[in-house]
Specification:
- This protein is of the alpha+beta class and 478 residues long.
- 30% of the residues lie in helices and 23% in strands.
- The chain is built from 12 helices and 22 strands.
- The strands form 5 sheets. Strands 1, 2, 9, 10, 11, 12, 19 and 20 form an 8-stranded mixed sheet that branches.
Length: 478
């Protein structure tokens, strides 16, 4: 019997877990996939929004602004990449300039600091690679960029160190209300818990509708992306948005914290909650739209394309709170953009809610900080040589594109909530995220996983489930 079970190990579920771990509570996160950060949290724009887009007075606006304000200190405490690079919403037609004023006024009411409307000359001076047709822009200096994997993994590791259990490959099949607690039927048996937190992303409606007569519907909104090589990562320095539409904030162009350039997303509503395939039409559309705001976009430098799903609720509002007809069941649903930006604030809000409902007491031994993977490239040559002498694995390069060493991969495997697959290693170390997209480093990474986890090569997967890489191997052909 747990006090709290959190369903979903994305950025929101892990943020709730980390904040809840401040208290004396028996908590567990259950996740249908093989690792944290396997759904919406792994495939998004990696943007920390300033908070001028969400409707005034909405929970979405409140969480966005508060999450933005929390992100910088959180990045220092938990040691993940974050940069406050600022954002620009660009206007390409004079008749649309009033739209910038509307966003400015909304942002001021939402509590966004430092907003300014720029003239054409000011915008082009700030970003010379913008289209010559730009007429003005809204500048938000508090906008930022973050590593979504780094954030989610840091939250999960810190929660785990503070006592929160994680159960992977544990899909929820049904939830039944018992006498003062819930019985959660999963593919790995039944789990009992006094409280349930529903942070299941695009499946949050499925989970909610198991226990509540007041149904909700989450639509999977697919977004296609292109990721460009580091050689063009400084083509723009700010996050560049067009004026938003009813389908969202539009196709952005932005640097990433790792030095790449990202372009996307599209916004296509689909029925398939696993539909993360890219399409030629989607990629052509985002390239054309991005090219309308940024001139001579170096799109030939694409190293990969991918698609992610946003959990869109028709009211376009976060649903956070206890279900009216299902006491002790807390929804954290409809967490679409700006969900990543809002996650730290949502974690605090839900943990405070559970603290008050359950009468939880704070721990005296809460560990508030976490140190990320040691990166030899960040050390001086003298420090690096000393490290390699102490541990030669840090002198063996496995991923040449990203200069990832064997020592970093071993660390990623053995950390709290450690990597168990190629994608798990990739999210933690960036091995496989470079120009060759794992073409050279995968076999070496698999050898390390096989050795460190005492697995057979046939058991190693790309991303859990049936994504095995080596099949049909026999003694005769080894």
């Amino acid at each position: 019997m747990y006090d709290v079970v959190i369903i979903g190990a994305g950025v929101t579920g892990c943020a709730v877990a980390r904040e809840l771990s401040r208290y004396q509570v028996n908590a567990c996160v259950i996740e249908k996939c093989e690792d944290v950060c396997c759904g919406t949290s792994k495939a998004n724009s990696a943007i920390v929004h300033a908070g001028f887009d969400a409707a005034e007075g909405s929970l979405m606006a409140k969480m966005n602004v508060e999450g933005n304000e929390l992100m910088e200190q959180l990045s220092k405490d938990l040691d993940f990449p974050f940069e406050r690079n600022g954002s620009l919403v660009v206007c390409m037609n004079k008749e649309d300039l009033p739209g910038l004023q509307t966003l400015y006024d909304r942002g001021v009411k939402n509590g966004v600091r430092g907003l300014r409307i720029l003239t054409k000359e000011e915008v082009l001076e700030m970003e010379p690679n913008l289209s010559d047709h730009v007429e003005g822009a809204l500048y938000a200096p508090t906008g930022g960029i973050v590593c979504p994997f780094g954030l989610t993994i840091a939250l999960a590791e810190n929660a785990n160190v503070n006592g929160v259990e994680f159960k992977f490959d544990t899909e929820v099949k049904d939830i039944k209300k018992a006498d003062g607690y819930y019985e959660i039927e999963t593919g790995n048996g039944t789990i009992e818990s006094r409280y349930v937190v529903n942070a299941a992303g695009v499946y949050a409606d499925v989970i909610h509708n198991m226990v509540s007569g007041k149904k909700i519907k989450i639509v999977a909104r697919r977004g296609d992306y292109c990721l460009l090589d580091r050689s063009v990562g400084n083509y723009v320095s700010k996050t560049i948005f067009p004026l938003p539409t009813k389908l969202g904030k539009g196709v952005l162009v932005s640097p990433t914290v790792h030095g790449n350039l990202i372009v996307g997303p599209t916004a296509i509503d689909i029925e398939d909650k696993e539909g993360t395939n890219t399409t030629k039409e989607g990629l052509d559309d985002l390239i054309a739209k991005a090219g309308g705001t940024v001139k001579d976009l170096p799109i030939r430098q694409v190293i990969t394309s991918f698609a992610g799903l946003r959990a869109h609720e028709e009211g376009h509002e976060f649903i956070i709170g206890e279900a009216e007809d299902a006491k002790q069941f807390i929804d954290v649903a409809g967490i679409e953009s700006p969900g990543l930006s809002s996650a730290p604030a949502i974690g605090v809000m839900v943990a405070d809610m559970l603290r008050d409902k359950m009468g939880l007491e704070e721990k005296t031994d809460f560990v508030a900080t976490r140190k990320g993977l040691l990166n030899p490239a960040s050390l001086s040559m003298e420090e690096r040589n000393r490290l390699i002498k102490e541990n030669p694995a840090y002198g063996t390069i496995i991923c040449r594109c990203e200069s990832v060493t064997e020592g970093e991969i071993i660390d990623a495997i053995h950390r709290p909530v450690g990597a168990r697959s190629l994608d798990g290693v990739k999210r933690r170390t960036r091995a496989g995220m470079g120009r060759c997209q794992a073409g050279f480093c995968s076999p070496r990474t698999m050898e390390i996983l096989e050795r460190e986890l005492n697995m057979s090569m046939e058991e190693i997967t790309k991303s859990g489930g049936n994504s095995r890489i080596v099949i049909g191997r026999t003694k005769e052909n080894v």
